[in-house]
Inverse folding.
């Protein structure tokens, strides 16, 4: 592997745009547009968490009821996670990651 040295000249207009934002576009963005985008981002994150939770449960071959009993979480919570109404946090999120990567060990530890 070869090493390439690059000198960045802040006065060079070609380097000014790298990693920079379009200030005019940011200034033209309204608070309402920002709030709308934040809401969309949060909804997308919840949907990703919902898909992940559902995928973990299905890979284990468990119904929602069986899954809630095995991990000692209420059935309503599991449903809320899978419907994207709520998102697992903290220990629950860590447990889902462990169940995804090492399901046998995680289920054995929970028994």
């Amino acid at each position: 592997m070869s090493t390439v040295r690059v000198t960045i000249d802040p006065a060079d207009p070609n380097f000014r745009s790298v990693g920079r934002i379009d200030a005019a576009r940011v200034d033209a963005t309204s608070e309402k547009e920002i709030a709308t985008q934040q809401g969309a981002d949060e909804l997308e994150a919840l949907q990703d968490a919902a898909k992940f939770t559902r995928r973990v449960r299905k890979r284990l071959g468990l119904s929602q009821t069986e899954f809630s009993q095995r991990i000692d979480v209420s059935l309503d919570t599991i449903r809320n996670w899978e419907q994207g109404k709520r998102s697992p946090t903290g220990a629950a999120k860590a447990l889902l990651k462990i169940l995804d990567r090492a399901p046998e060990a995680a289920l054995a530890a929970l028994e």
